[in-house]
Amino acid sequence: MKLSIGIVGLPNVGKSTLFKIITKQEVNIANYPFATIDPNIGVVPVPDERLQKLTELSRSKKTVPAVVEFYDIAGLVKGAHKGEGLGNQFLTHIREVNAVLQVVRCFKESEIIHVEGGVNPLRDVETIKTELALKDLETVQKRLEKAEADARSGNKEFVDLKDALEEIKAWLEEGKMLTTIPKEDSLHWKILKELNLLTAKPQLYLLNGREEDVPSELITEIKETGAGYVVADLSSAETIPELIRKAYEVLNLISFFTTGEDESRAWTCLAGTKAPQAAGVIHSDFQEKFIRAEVVKYEKLVEAGGWNEAKQKGWLRLEGKDYEVQDGDVIVVRHG
Prior knowledge:
It comes from Candidatus Jorgensenbacteria bacterium GW2011_GWB1_50_10. The chain is α/β, with parallel strands linked by helices.
């Protein structure tokens, strides 16, 4: 599956700087709002030491990591949902990403202009959350108008849909992030997925500054929503791997591997994915024609020194259609 993350935030908080570090691409960085007009898209390999070890073990000709797409969205401001600062255009760019990464300015340097006149991370987080929620309210309201018309027929399915949309609208009006809706509310989550709502996407925060710059209240607030966060001053080499680790965590993703003389490759799927669906990540035909998977844990494969050696030690398992692929599994798919 493709992993994509939209980078959002107020102007001049460090979004384009982060994007430049992530992709090592030159983007337009300027000390004024709206320097970035179109979303810059960068494809970044997922750092995973296990993959390189598998390449060495199999003497693979190629190494193919999993990748993350980062979308650098131009700075949002108060009123973005109505088009302030070209905000409507930018919010549309976030619709298709898997997760939203909000960059929050915590550093105090006064020579860098702040669009609100002063540094206040709690206020800035609230501004972005409000703009995302207001954009979602527009989307929900349009869908609710149609649902209300359909519900006049008395059809229970339409009535239930209308009621669920009204509840979602109420949550948004109360300023709640839709990620906090219980997963058991299956109808609500079906609607959130259908409408691709921004505040229903898993949230990540990059708190741009030093640990001492970050208000403890902000950390508490982020944790209460179940979001992931990284504190970094955008000069640490560990910032990007840590961001990607957090993205995998909040999106409930795992990595599994294939390896051989031709290539060693990392693949991404949701935790709990069963073997046929994981095989489909490799190739759609594999899911349809799945027979079984030969599986060995990465650590056991390395310990054994190779595939045949792991098989001789009895560490290779044959798994069927009900097997849930685990992080670190090395797999060979048998198919018709």
